[in-house]
Amino acid sequence: MIVVVAEHAGGKLRKSTLELVTVARRLASGLKSEITGLVMGSDVSPVADELARFVPKVVVAQDPELAEMRAEPLTTVITGLCKQVEARAVLVAASRSGLSYSPRVALRLDAPLLEDVTSVEVEGDQLVATRFSYLSRVTETVRALTWPVVMSVKPNLFPVAQAGTPGLAEQMRPSWGESDLRVQVGEKQTGQGGRVALEEADVVVAGGRGLGSAEGFAALVEPLADQLSAGVASTRAVVDAGWRTYAEQVGQTGKTVAPKLYLALGVSGAVQHLSGMNRSTIVAAINKDADAPIFKVADYGIVGDVHAVVPALRAALKELE
After folding, report:
1. If 71 and its partner were Cys, which of 100, 149, 211, 302 is the partner (CB 3.0–4.6 Å)?
2. Is 171 exposed, middle or buried (0-12, 13-18, 19+ CB in 10 A)?
């Protein structure tokens, strides 16, 4: 059995989950195995129904203790299901949440852990995967010699699965010990409402050091992103300078995105940043440095000052509304 651990937000599946389904289908073909999806949380029946459109079986674990998606109780639920169905592979998204519980699951199952996987295939009776290292300059091949295997898959690198024959959902009664509830979630702060999540965005507007200051970033990137219903991204240099939060960082040490349009404002195009956005369908760049590396990967480019070009671009977009 191949277990797909679903991620969701706002009552809907995250795109990363449908990417996991694509990987699971490939593995299922090679291993001659079935696929089971696992949905955890509180009041997640709508999410389970959505996932059932893509996999033949969905197990639903609902409990108030799962509402905050803490690593320890999630680990217990995942491990319990995997032992019950004798899972051969466990697929999780390499998100902050997935990376917190996947090592725990691997430890409890005494299973090899393949992290940040970028491609995977079955060779004989072994699972072989690749991942990037050394700022995406090197591709490593890793091989799991035993089963089961726990694998975290890097988001936005696999196509989104298409719906198939509707499957069935069944309830699972979760249980855990006191040690699973030692960590409690306290105060929570959310980002600006109404803006699309970066990993889910079809359009991303990114800002770099060429914007000059945190104020310049806010004055140019945010209004344009709102106008385009886009996600906001930053380079590492911008985050290191304290202009923006790490949650917006795209690159080798940040997030990987794959939007239909990636609009880079004042972004030089360092290799670390390119590794996080090189799967964008169309890349458009605005930079006053004609020799900036970003222009080597851009489909469209404007050599000019972002402080002059962006307002003109916004005015042109407004005329089209």
Report:
1. 100
2. exposed
- Domains defined for the chain, CATH in brackets: 2-181 (3.40.50.620), 198-320 (3.40.50.1220)
**Residue 315 burial (CB < 10 Å; 0-12/13-18/19+)?**
exposed
Q: Which residue is listed with tokens 């972002």?
A: 306
157 within 8 A of 258, measured Cβ to Cβ:
yes
Tell me, yes or no, if the pTM score tops 0.90: no
pLDDT of amino acid 190? 59
Beta bridge mates, 35: 2
Distance CA 190, CA 179 (A): 28
Task: State the pLDDT at residue 188.
Answer: 66
Average pLDDT for consecutive 10-residue bins of the chain (321 residues)?
A: 94 94 95 95 94 96 89 95 96 92 96 94 92 77 95 92 91 86 74 69 95 95 94 95 93 88 96 89 96 96 96 92 74
Burial of 16 (0-12, 13-18, 19+ CB in 10 A): buried
Give CA–CA dist 173/86, Å, rounded.
18
Report the number of secondary-structure helices (H) and strands (E) in the chain. Answer: 9, 17
